[in-house]
Design goal:
By secondary structure, the chain is of the alpha+beta class.
């Protein structure tokens, strides 16, 4: 009799009519004998959540649970079979599965914490370093390989609403400008925060014409003149200056002929030192403190990159081919969506890392995931201190 493990319950969230349509679209199970697309996804989810680092670890980790294979729905954990599947099965299957499940996650995502009632996004990119001798297709510099992960983060639910993987040589701003990368059209009146690497005046002007508010860190060598004061300076709240400026350089003025707002504010870093930041925005209505808070909120995408690098497998890879690496990154992002979906649906009170650890420990257990997440750990400690046992129903 087949029983439902935690891993099966995660797979059921991803499975459905849409999943099999994607597999059929890309001939994912063509010439497949033992390791179907569904089985490969289950094994990769197991490996990601368990934090396994190699094919040998994956094979050994599943071999000791051979009695549960029938419940998981797998038939083989041979290293060569899994290696061939990662190298040959199109990574587009998992890319499309990610985007389909993302639509479902957006339906349950909570709102952002900013004091504005419009969507807030942050665009940024991060490098994933690769060994050039093992990954010759990912040449970045003469002796270094790298993959660049470009992402648009939706602050409602902290969800990656746009993801592109490119060579490390591709400049950040090229992805948002070049139509071949399909950067999405943002809703009018939305707010986009970016770092100074996206300082392209023509692109910023195009955002202005679309009715989108942008907040970008100013470059230190920017040529401009102050044409007036915009608002009251509130030094007690960290605002040093709030000025109206226009560019003085010919080409910059031609690319962006309108006035901008330059806000200078201070903050205290983690070491206790006071730092000063200058940001540019085309929004003339919001308070300077709100603009500063929105730009500070851009740090969420840095935390997102750090979290997936530290807790999901996108720094060390199982295969060395481009297809294998792309597959692994997309599955890692799917795991993040699963955790976000579960946290938002169940209103899990603890952090995403805590949720990952709980699922990791009971991944092949037969209890209900909902019941597992309803355990009150403080109450559990007290009960265990009196020698009581916990039963899952």
């Amino acid at each position: 009799m087949r029983r439902n493990t935690i891993l099966n319950q995660l797979m059921q969230l991803l499975h459905g009519k849409g999943f099999w349509q994607i597999v059929t679209k890309y001939d994912g199970d063509r010439y497949c004998k033992k390791l179907s697309c569904s089985q490969e996804l289950a094994i990769l989810l197991f490996a990601m959540i368990k934090d396994l680092t190699s094919f040998r670890e994956i094979s050994t980790g599943l071999m000791v649970h051979m009695d549960k294979w029938v419940h998981i729905g797998i038939q083989t954990v041979a290293r060569s079979t899994l290696s061939d599947a990662l190298a040959r099965r199109p990574y587009r299957i998992y890319e499309e599965l990610f985007h389909r499940f993302l639509e479902r996650c957006h339906q349950y995502a909570p709102g952002h914490s900013f004091r504005v009632k419009v969507p807030v996004f942050t665009q940024d990119a991060t490098l994933v370093s690769l060994c050039l001798s093992a990954y010759p297709w990912a040449r970045y510099r003469r002796r270094k390989g790298a993959l660049k992960l470009h992402m648009l983060l939706d602050h409602e639910g902290t969800l990656p609403s746009f993801v592109r993987m490119t060579s490390g040589k591709v400049h950040d701003v090229r992805v948002v400008k070049d139509s071949t990368y399909d950067f999405p059209a943002l809703p009018p009146d939305s707010i986009l925060t970016v770092d100074r690497g996206y300082m392209d005046y023509a692109w910023l002007h195009s955002l202005e014409q679309q009715g989108i508010t942008f907040i970008i860190r100013a470059k230190s060598n920017m040529a401009y003149r102050v044409v007036g004061q915009h608002g009251e300076v509130k030094k007690e709240r960290g605002i040093v200056a709030d000025e109206l400026i226009e560019f003085t350089h010919f080409y910059e003025q031609k690319a962006y002929p309108r006035r901008l707002r330059l806000i200078r504010y201070t903050y205290t870093d983690t070491k206790g030192n006071e730092q000063e930041v200058e940001v540019l925005t085309n929004n003339m209505k919001l308070a300077a403190t709100t603009i500063a808070a929105l730009y500070k909120g851009r740090w969420e995408i840095e935390e997102f990159f750090r979290w997936i690098k530290q807790n999901l497998k996108i720094k060390t890879f199982y295969g060395t081919s481009e297809n294998a690496v792309m597959t692994q990154v997309w599955v890692a992002l799917i795991v993040y969506l699963l955790l976000s979906f579960i946290k938002h649906q169940t209103r899990y009170a603890y952090s995403m890392l805590e949720l990952l650890r709980v699922i990791r420990e009971r991944l092949l257990g037969f209890e209900s995931l909902l019941e597992l997440l309803r355990v009150n750990y403080e109450r559990l400690k007290k009960r265990l201190s009196f020698g009581e046992q916990l039963a899952f129903y």
